[in-house]
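Session log. Operator J.P. requested a structure for one protein chain; no other inputs attached. Running the standard single-chain path with C-alpha cell output.
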Amino acid sequence: MDVQDARQQLEQMLHELDTATTTLESEGAGDNAELSHVDQHPADNASDLVDQDRENALLEAADTQRAQIRAALARIDDGTYGTCTDCGAAISEARLSVRPEAARCVECQSKAEDAA
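Structure written below.
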C-alpha cells in the first residue's frame, strides 16, 4: 500500500472516529446522569444500565482504535509503516488494505491474540 494513500485513509478514519465519538458524547453516551431517581420498574433501570454499558463500550473501543490509528501514523512518520512490530517482516498489502492501522503481520497478530 502506498504510504500517502495509507496516511490519507488513516486520517479519514481518525476524522470519522472523532465525529462519531463527539456525536455520542453530545447525546450523553456513557453519562449516568440520565438514570432516573424516580421510582421506576426494575426492568426500566436494567435497560438504562445496559444502554449505558453499551455506550461506554463503544467509547472505549473508539479510544482503542484511535490509539492504533495514531500509532500507525507515527510509524508512517518514522518510516516503519508496513513492517511488523514483533518480527520485523513486511505486513502484506492485503492486510494493510483491510486494516491500514495494523502493526503486526497476520501470524504475529494471531499469536498476540492467543496470548491475550
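Operator note: The mean pLDDT is 88.
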